[in-house]
Input
Amino acid sequence: MKIAGSVALVTGADRGLGRVFARELVGRGAAKVYGAARNPAAVTQPGVTPIALDITDPDRVARVAHDCSDVTLLVNNAGVMKASPFIGAPSLDAARLEMETNYFGTLSMCRAFAPVLAAGAGAIVNMMSVTSFYTSPLDPSYGASKAAELSLTNGIRMELSRQGTLVVAVHASFIDTDMAAGIDAPKISPESVARQTFEAVEAGEIEVLADERTRTIKSQLPHDHELIYAPLEQIFFAPAEGSG
Ligand SMILES: NC(=O)c1ccc[n+]([C@@H]2O[C@H](COP(=O)([O-])OP(=O)(O)OC[C@H]3O[C@@H](n4cnc5c(N)ncnc54)[C@H](OP(=O)(O)O)[C@@H]3O)[C@@H](O)[C@H]2O)c1
Output
């Protein structure tokens, strides 16, 4: 589909990657861009229409789908990452919040907007992560929620093929936003992710592997235990000197 003339809705459009997605859509000539955010007052990009939306609130999701019934391109960008381990976390709170937002919130948006998109086929972009297909020791329970989001993305692609809706999965390693602010590692710019994403939408491609690390890790999956997990275990979980 063409971005020019489309009507897009971006979740989490107040900051980070969502803010850049919305700006890029305006720049590429989208006819209308809804910038959805928990705090719509923070959606200040020129040409973007602010909409109040918490994706974990099903009533609000339904209301927004009703009010924005002209949407042809849904960009599910909103997400949370609590950098929480599975065993060492004090409770399940972080894991539940990540699953509630990244999986159930995204699923609820896809379900609400599927009939809206049906009118003109349209497209859905789900913003995921390299941790959708491998478990990082830096953010394990986040990875579980992104893996669940990948599963739903593959599932809705099949279910929505009947109505011709393109479903694009976008995966990236570290992106230079608040979410990765505490991480000292190479980061891709949000502008590059946005550019690659909308080029994929226009080309009808179903997957974006936005950076080299994401492409490398995906290519290693057939040998993930040897190439990915064993080295990570050595780096992050090697027994302390003298123990055992
Ligand atoms: N940064 C990275 O390294 C990285 C890497 C790969 C993938 N991603 C993914 O990229 C997407 C954007 O992340 P980012 O880097 O821009 O992170 P960010 O700077 O932390 O922004 C996250 C955005 O999601 C919104 N959000 C969180 N929970 C929400 C909810 N329940 N309802 C509506 N909006 C909600 C936030 O809104 P508030 O302002 O209200 O909190 C904010 O706009 C996420 O899906 C993330 O998982 C990020």
In short: The mean pLDDT is 97. The longest strand covers residues 32-37. The pocket of NAP is lined by residues 11-12, 14-18, 37-39, 53-56, 77-81, 101, 105, 127, 129, 172, 174-175, 177-180 (CB under 6 Å).
